[in-house]
Amino acid sequence: MQTDDVAAGGRRERKKRETRQALAAAALRLAVEKGPDNVTVEEISEAADVSVRTFFNYFPHKEHAILGRDPEDLERALTRLRETPAEYSPLTTMRLLITRTLAEFEDEQGDRARQVALIFESPALLSQFVLLGAEDERALSAALAERMGDPPGAIAPALIVSTVIAAIRVAAEKLKQAGPELAGRTLSSLVDEAFLMIAHGLDPDYDPHALSRIDQEGQS
User: Fold this and answer.
1) Is the pTM of this model over 0.90?
2) Residues 6+ away with beta carbon under 8 Å from 130
3) Is 61:27 a contact under the CB 8 Å cutoff?
4) Residue 215: how many CA atoms within 13 Å on its side-chain side?
5) Residue 216, Cβ density class (10 Å: 0-12 exposed, 13-18 middle, ≥19 buried)
6) Residue of 68, 83, 92, 59 lying closest to 160 (CA atoms)
7) CA dihedral over 47, 49, 52, 57, signed as positive or negative
8) Label partner for 156 (CA 20 to 30 A): which of 4, 5, 39, 175?
9) What domains appear along the chain, each with residue ranges and CATH number?
10) How far is the C-alpha of 184 from the C-alpha of 143, rounded, in Å?
C-alpha cells in the first residue's frame, strides 16, 4: 500500500511538472508569435489544453509563464543571498546575486535566449525579470535585513533592494533603446555602471538642508 502511495505521488508530481512545462512552452511560443503584450491567459490555457483556473494554479500571471518562472527561483536567490560571505557589504551582496542571475540568462540558448529577447519588448515582462515582483522584493528585503542585523521592515535593506531593482530596469530599458553609443554593451555592463553610480552617490552635491533654508528665506 505504501509503495502504491509513493508511486501515485510520483505520478502526480510528474503530471504537475508536465502541465507547468506545457503552459510555459505555450506562453513562450505565443509571445514570440504575437508579442508578449498581445497574449492572453485564455490563449495560453487553450494552447496548453488546460482551463484558465488550472493556469492560475501554476502561474500568478502570464509574465511568469512566458519567463518559465519557477517558484523555486526565489528560494534559490534567497539561498544565494544568505550564503554570500559575511564580509561583503549589503550592496555588494546584491550585486553578486544579480551577477549570477544575469549570467545565467545571458549564457542560455534556445528558449532562454528567446525569453531574454522578449524581456526587452515588454515593460510588463521587464518588471518581472530578476525577481522584480512585489512579493519577491519583500522576501529579498527581509533576507537582507536579517543579514544586516536590522529588524523586519527596516528602511535600509528595503531601500537597497528597491534601488537595485530600479537600476536593473533602467539598464534594460537603455539597452532596449540603444543607439550607436551603446554598441557592444551588455545588460551586465550597464548594470555594473548603475551599481557604481549607486555606490558613489547619484548626486554628490545633494544638500539635505536646502528645503529648510529655502523656507527660512521665504519667511524673511
Assistant:
1) no
2) 98, 101, 102, 165, 168
3) no
4) 4
5) exposed
6) 92
7) negative
8) 175
9) 3-67 (1.10.10.60), 72-200 (1.10.357.10)
10) 35
Distance CA 86, CA 99 (A): 18
How confident is the prediction along the chain (220 residues), in pLDDT tens digits per residue?
556 555 666 888 899 989 999 999 999 899 989 988 899 999 999 999 999 999 999 998 898 898 887 767 788 899 999 999 999 999 999 999 988 887 776 655 556 667 767 776 776 776 666 555 677 889 999 999 999 999 988 999 999 999 998 888 888 778 777 667 776 787 888 888 999 999 888 777 777 777 777 767 666 6
Burial class (CB within 10 angstroms; exposed 0-12, middle 13-18, buried 19+) of 8? exposed
Closest CA to 31 of 106, 101, 120, 103: 120
